C-alpha cells in the first residue's frame, strides 16, 4: 500500500513508448523538410560522430590486418624452422648412410658369385625387448618381400622376415629367442646352429660336445641347409667356449658380425636358389 503523501507513476508500456518515439521521429523528419537549417544543423552534429566511426573502423581494419600478418609470419617462421631442422638431421645422417652403403656393397662384393638379387629397406620401428627382438621395415609384399627372406646389414646376416603386409615387413633378429640359423665354421663343413638368446651382443651355439673344435675367434657363416639362406653369409665370431660343471656340452657364445643394436639401412636378399625354383 502506498504511503500518504507519495505519488506513484507507472511507466508507459513498451508498445506505447515505441509508438511515441515513432511519432516524434516522423514529426522531426516532416519538420526538417520545411526547415533546411534544422537539417543542416543535424548533419553538423552527426559529422564528428561519423568521422570518429570512420577512424575507429579504419583502425580496427589496420589492427586486424597487422595481427593476421603477424600470425602468417609466425606460421611461416615455424615451418621454415621445421624444414631446417629436418635438413640438418638429413645432413647429419647422410655420412652414416653413405658409410653403411659402402659396407653393404663391400659385403656383396666379398662373394665370388652374387648371392642373389637385393633391395635396400629402411627401418621404421623396432622392438628390442629381452624376449622378442624384431624390427619393422618400409618394404612389403608390394615389393615381393616374403616370409623367411634373409635380411643383411653391414657385417653380415641380421635375421629373417617373419611377417609381411603390403607396405611393411617384420624381421626377427638373430638375437631373438625364436631365431635359429643353420651355420658352419668358415672353411669347414661341420653343421651347427646359431641361436638367439635375447641379447643383441651375444648369440649361442647349442649342443656342442665338450671336445668341440670351435675356439674363440672362429668365424661362423650360413651353411645353406634348409634353403632359406645361401651358404657363406657371415653370422658371427666365437667369443668364448666354456666347459662348466662337468656337463656334456660346451657353452659357446658368439658375437654377431652385424651390429644389431645400431641398424638403419638393411638389405633384403632374394637368393639365387629361390629365383631358379620360381621359374
Number of helices: 3
Let me know the number of strands. Answer: 12
Order of helices and strands: HHEEEEEEEEEEEEH
User: What's the pLDDT, averaged over the residues?
Assistant: 79
Main beta-sheet strand count, sense and barrel state: 6 strands, antiparallel, barrel
Low-confidence blocks of residues = 5-9, 275-279
Measured as a percent range, the helix fraction is 25-40%
Shape: rod-shaped
What does this structure look like?
There is one protein chain. This protein has helices at 14-34, 36-109, 272-278, and strands spanning 116-128, 133-137, 150-153, 156-164, 169-173, 180-185, 192-196, 203-209, 219-222, 234-242, 249-256, 265-271. Helix content is 37%, strand content 29%. Residues 5-9 and 275-279 have low confidence and may be disordered. The strands form 2 sheets. A 6-stranded antiparallel beta barrel has the order 1-2-5-4-3-12. Strands 6-7-8-11-10-9 form a 6-stranded antiparallel β-barrel. Strand 6 (180-185) and strand 7 form a beta hairpin. The protein is of the alpha+beta class and 279 residues long. It is rod-shaped. The termini are far apart.
Tags for this model:
3 helices; 279 residues; disordered C terminus; alpha+beta; 6-stranded antiparallel β-barrel
Characterize this entry briefly.
By secondary structure, the chain is α+β, with helices and mostly antiparallel strands. It has helices at residues 14-34, 36-109, 272-278; strands spanning 116-128, 133-137, 150-153, 156-164, 169-173, 180-185, 192-196, 203-209, 219-222, 234-242, 249-256, 265-271.
